Amino acid sequence: MKRTLPLLLLLGLILILVGFSLAAAQLQQSFPGFNPLPAVFFCVAACMGHRWLWLPVVAWLASYWLTGLMNGHGWSWEMIIVVAGFGAATGVGFLLRGRGGMALLGGSVGAAVLFYVVTNSGSWLLSAQYSKTWLGFLQAQTVGLPGPFPPAWAFLRGSVAAGALFTALFLLGQRQWLGHACPGGRLTPLRVRRQDQGTR
């Protein structure tokens, strides 16, 4: 069971991400920016450490590839913007490693805001529709581009809501299934086992 835990986590993440990716069109119309991925990267960094970051990375790449096949789109170099946003959320998770549940919930909001700012800044830099001025930067962070899309601030609202919700579910799942909370970094049975062996 201990050896299969990472595979079960990976499979669960892939299923969740594929489901959200397939429902993205409907979600983005009703609640734009609601995405579990920044919270997943934040929680793994805060509670599991760098050795487990391959879980959300592989899950994201697999879900991106699967939904691309289903929807007829391929890889894009603009993925770099999203990768930078995930990196920012991961960095916040590492900064809060070993903190209590309330600190992590607050940190998840901070990670969501940072993800939003990083990805919107990347869009501002790469999109020819934004003027490369301070006013253009403010437009990217607040109202976004004109058109049929929701304003940019609505994506921030969805990102913050998703970050808080999925972080709370992550912490609740640890208490329910593993019998302890995230702080201290003692999440996985494999890690605890290695620590116990080192003390013998």
The gist of it:
By secondary structure, the protein is mostly helical. It has helices at residues 5-22, 24-30, 37-47, 54-71, 79-95, 101-126, 134-141, 152-178, 189-198.
Structure description:
This protein has 200 residues and is mostly helical. The chain has one domain (36-189). 71% of the residues lie in helices and 0% in strands. It is built from 9 helices and no strands. The protein has helices at 5-22, 24-30, 37-47, 54-71, 79-95, 101-126, 134-141, 152-178, 189-198. Helix 3 (37-47) packs across helix 8 and helix 6 (101-126) crosses helix 7 (134-141). The longest helix is centred in the last third of the chain and has 27 residues, at 152-178. The chain is globular. The relative contact order is 0.15.
